[in-house]
Structures are given as C-alpha cells and as structure tokens.
Amino acid sequence: MSELSEVNGPGNGSATGRPELRDRVRGLALQSALRKRAAGVPTYSVPEAAALLSVSQEHLYRLIRADAFPAVRMRLGADQGRYVVPAKAVERLLDAATGAGGCVEVGQWTPTWQDLPAGSSAFRGGDAA
C-alpha cells in the first residue's frame, strides 16, 4: 500500500477539514510526482499534477471536467473510473507561461493542446479512442 493511500485510508476521514492532513497528503503527492518526473513516467494522477501546479486537486478536477485541462479518463462503460494527466500537458503549460513571460490562461491554452495534429501523443478530454 502506498503512503498516499495509507493517509487517505479508512478511518482517516476527509482531508478537506484538516489542514495538517491535507498538507501531508499534498506533500506525499508532490514527492510521488517528482519521483515519476525523474523516472520519465508519462502520466500523473490528478493529486500529483495538482501538487506540481500548486493548485488544489478539486480545482484541477473542475478544469478537467470542464474540458479546460488535458486528461485521459480511464474507465469502462458507465463505471466511475479515474483520470490521468499527461506529464507533457503539465510541462507544456509551464513552458507556455515561461515563454509568454506572463500569465497564461489555461482555458485559452487548452485549445492549442486539443488542436494538435492526429497521431500526436495528445488526447482530447475523455473521448479519445
């Protein structure tokens, strides 16, 4: 069992009402994301991507569901499933902000990700085949 699932496991309650637990979970997600980044793993979980971007995972989930941030929905049929975030999406967003020398609006940046040519490694929303 991973450290993250131990913190979120049964009997530990929700992280939203307890700042110290939320901070610990965020720290573990960041550590996990940095390990994946160093190893070249191509995807992050939503909590990992949120930690790298310094936003709450709830906010990132809202952006993903609004089709305003690239993710892949991993599910079969009507099952709930989960999202994974391409590491390239996180890197490209941060590179865009660095290259712009100012603020990049994620809602305006996402269509550039969605408009990549067919056969690229990007997927639009959860509907890609």
Span between termini? 31 Å
Strand order of the largest sheet: 1-3-2
What is the H-and-E element order? HHEHHEEHH
In total, the number of domains comes to 1
Kindly state the number of beta strands: 3
Please, what is the average pLDDT? 80
Shape type? globular
User: Beta fraction of the residues?
Assistant: 5-15%
Q: Helix/strand-derived class?
A: mainly alpha
Describe the biggest sheet?
Answer: 3 strands, antiparallel
Helix % is: 40-55%
Poorly predicted runs are 5-16, 118-129
Q: Give the count of helical stretches.
A: 6
Please tell me about this protein's structure.
This protein has 129 residues and is mainly alpha-helical. It has one domain (3-114). 52% of the residues lie in helices and 9% in strands. It has helices spanning 3-8, 19-39, 46-53, 57-65, 87-100, 106-114, and strands at residues 43-45, 72-74, 82-86. Strands 1-3-2 form a three-stranded antiparallel beta sheet. A hairpin with a 7-residue loop joins β2 and β3. α2 (19-39) packs across α3 (46-53) and α3 (46-53) packs across α4 (57-65). The longest helix is centred in the N-terminal third of the chain and has 21 residues, at 19-39. The model is unreliable at 5-16 and 118-129 (pLDDT under 50). This is Excisionase family DNA binding protein.
Summary?
By secondary structure, the chain is mainly alpha-helical.
Q: What labels would you give this structure?
A:
129 residues, mainly alpha, 3-stranded antiparallel sheet, 6 helices, disordered C terminus, HTH_17, Excisionase family DNA binding protein
Furnish the topology, listing elements before pairings.
Blueprint (H helix, E strand, L loop, with lengths): L2 H6 L10 H21 L3 E3 H8 L3 H9 L6 E3 L7 E5 H14 L5 H9 L15
Antiparallel strand pairs: 1-3, 2-3
Helix pairs in contact: 2-3, 3-4
